[in-house]
Design a protein that fits this description.
alpha+beta; 3 helices; about 130 residues; three-stranded antiparallel beta sheet; elongated; single chain; 2 domains; MmyB-like transcription regulator ligand binding domain-containing protein
Length: about 130
């Protein structure tokens, strides 16, 4: 069971665990969606499920904007069901430049205090905040 699925402080699940096909909450959710949506019912019955172990994703970052990232899924053989997703940007692309921007903030020296921001990083500016 993944941690984000737990209700804070109680250990109770907030949502179904998709890795467990016998999960009662998942079964109830599928039943509810099936009774309310003909499109869901048709797609669920087709069970057209594909595993993607790599590809490209479009992501919108609130500070740097649109990113096009390649990804690879790395399954952990020691723990069935756990996967690490590794994302990367192609060199010399707008996405790479966008990702380098926050990294440059962390590598700058805080001139006011003389401290190295790599050990005391400043938070990124909020969009629309005065400079």
């Amino acid at each position: 069971m993944c941690t984000p699925c737990l209700q804070p402080g109680t250990g109770r699940r907030l949502r179904p665990d998709p890795r467990d096909p016998h999960d009662r909450a998942l079964t109830e959710l599928v039943g509810e969606l099936s009774t309310q949506s003909g499109l869901f019912r048709t797609r669920w019955a087709a069970h057209d499920v594909l595993l993607h172990h790599g590809g490209v994703k479009q992501i919108h970052h609130p500070v740097v904007g649109e990113l096009t990232l390649g990804y690879d899924a790395l399954e952990l053989p020691a723990d069935t069901g756990l996967t690490i997703m590794a994302y990367s940007a192609e060199p010399a692309t707008p996405t790479r430049d966008a990702l380098d921007l926050p990294a440059s903030w962390a590598a700058t020296v805080d001139r006011d205090s003389g401290s190295d921001s790599r050990t005391h990083p400043a938070p990124p500016p909020r969009p629309g905040a005065p400079a």
